[in-house]
Amino acid sequence: MVWLLISAVAALLASACLGVFWSRVRGTVADWLREHGYDRSFVMAAWIQLDRVAAGVHSEVYLQGHHQPAIRVSVKVVSFGEIDDPVLRAALATRQQVRLDILPIVQ
Fold this sequence. Notes:
The protein is α+β, with helices and mostly antiparallel strands. The protein has one domain (about 20-105). The protein is about 40% helix and about 30% strand. The two termini are about 25 Å apart. About 10% of the residues are buried. Mean pLDDT is about 85; it is low at about 1-15.
C-alpha cells in the first residue's frame, strides 16, 4: 500500500516536472493516436526532430509502429522561449539540429 502511494506521488512529480513543452508534445501524440484509432501500444518508436530556424525552432514529431514506416504526426514552428526544458535549450544553443527519442514520454 505504501509503495503504491509512493509510486503515485512519483508519477505526479514526474509529470509536473515534465514541463509545458513536453506536455504539449505528449498531448499532440495522444491526440493523433486517438484520431487514427490507435492506442499507445501501437508506438514502437517515437522521436522529435528540432531544427533552429530564423523564426524559432522547427519541430517535427514522428511515430513508428511495428513493421510500419515512420509517420510524421506533427510539424510546427515554436519560439525558442516556448521550450522550457533547460537541457533541450542548451542543446539547441550549441547545435543546429537535435533529434531526441521521446518514446518514454509518449508511453
